[in-house]
Design goal:
heterodimer; B: alpha+beta; Aminopeptidase; seven-stranded mixed beta sheet; 5 helices
């Protein structure tokens, strides 16, 4: 993952020789350098993890509560009225 | 005061101090990257006066989209309800500079964040506004605004965007 104008830094990894050979072999097959291959793999993992972090998984036990929240149409508590007055001093 | 989308060229990050190490570290080190990668949108509160140097940040919040899945849903459970995952706007962070705390800015930023969540829901049909509370005190603060604690994770609180859309001016 590259960012225009971003500084480049080294990331050193200690892996077993056999593992390194496997990575190199796959990288070669795809016409990539070892670095490009490893960086691409990590970028994929980063994207997956970022997506997973924004998926909230509720258990069955939370189901009734969750539906109550979804179907609640009650007016907002008074706390919002005062807070909105405070927010009026903020532009944007 | 003015709310602006965070821009590391315009807003000072290193001087921000809310008194909470995690909130401060994230803002100083990760806000720029998170926004650049479109993982979050970060909004900062600044004084209205223009400055020649970077603007000091009085407070910030971070929003992202999330989805909520519920385990073990049968078809009959789904009747009258949206299919899961249910789209939500998630506020992972809200912090106020220590020098400005105690003046209602946290409440004001909560309103601003909720208004942005409502606007987002008009464009992308989100159903919930979900906030992550920093601690028990923050969770109780959110409860006073009608947020409901998740039984599974009491530091994550939910409110329907329909209620916010109807109740916020």
């Amino acid at each position: 993952m590259e960012y225009e104008g971003a500084e480049v830094t080294r990331l050193q990894l200690r892996v077993q020789e056999e593992f390194r050979s496997r990575i190199e072999e796959q990288a070669n097959r795809q016409g990539l350098t070892l670095t490009d291959y490893v960086v691409a793999a990590i970028a994929e993992k980063l994207a997956r993890d970022a997506e997973a972090a924004n998926t909230i998984r509720l258990s069955e036990e939370s189901r009734a509560w969750f539906f109550d929240v979804l179907s609640d149409t009650s007016p907002l508590p008074e706390a919002w009225v005062e807070a909105q007055a405070l927010a009026e001093d903020i532009d944007g | 005061m003015r709310l602006e989308q965070f821009n590391h060229l315009r807003h000072a990050t290193s001087s921000f101090s809310s008194g909470n190490e995690e909130m401060d570290r994230w803002f100083r080190r990760f806000a720029k990257r998170s926004q650049r990668d479109s993982l979050t949108r970060v909004f900062v509160l600044v004084e209205t006066e223009e400055a020649t140097t970077k603007l000091p940040v009085l407070g910030y919040f971070a929003l992202s989209m999330a989805s909520v899945e519920v385990a073990g849903l049968s078809e009959s459970d789904r009747q009258g309800l949206p299919r899961t995952p249910v789209p939500a706007v998630l506020m992972t962070r809200l912090a106020i500079s220590a020098s400005r705390q105690g003046r209602g800015l946290g409440r004001a930023l909560l309103v601003k964040a909720a208004q942005k969540a409502v606007l987002a829901s008009e464009a992308v049909a989100a159903r919930l506004f979900v906030v992550d509370a920093l601690d028990e005190e923050a969770a109780r603060f959110d409860e006073r605004f009608g947020f409901s604690r998740s039984p599974q994770d009491p530091m994550r609180l939910y409110i329907g965007l329909n209620r916010l859309a109807n109740g916020l001016s």
